[in-house]
Design brief:
The chain has 107 residues and is mainly α. The chain has one domain. Helix content is 77%, strand content 0%. It contains six helices and no strands. Helix 2 packs parallel to helix 4, helix 3 runs antiparallel to helix 4 and helix 4 runs antiparallel to helix 6. The radius of gyration is 14 Å and the shape is globular. The model has no long low-confidence stretch (mean pLDDT 91).
Length: 107
Amino acid sequence: NWIPEDWIVSLLGKKNPLGVILAVFAGIPMYADIFGCISISESLLAKGALLGVVLSFMMAVTTLSLPSLIMLKKAIKTKLLVIFVSICVAGIILVGYFFNVFQTLFL
């Protein structure tokens, strides 16, 4: 109830083609596991966000969280980390758009 429904629909709803990308980059600074994201995702869906946007947000939070990337940086070289992040971002965005199309066509 803190974030107005109109605001969520305008940013993450059907009329914004960049909703998936916004959701991915909004999820990166967060640190939560998948179970922590479920309640946030449920409320986003209830307020009008598309399924692909919500899934992209959940995947970005669990895969690309800033604390996880900082820990990975200590284990792997920077070049490999950049490749990892690039592949993950591209994959998450593709999956998000796929589910948005699926939702608008079949649900």
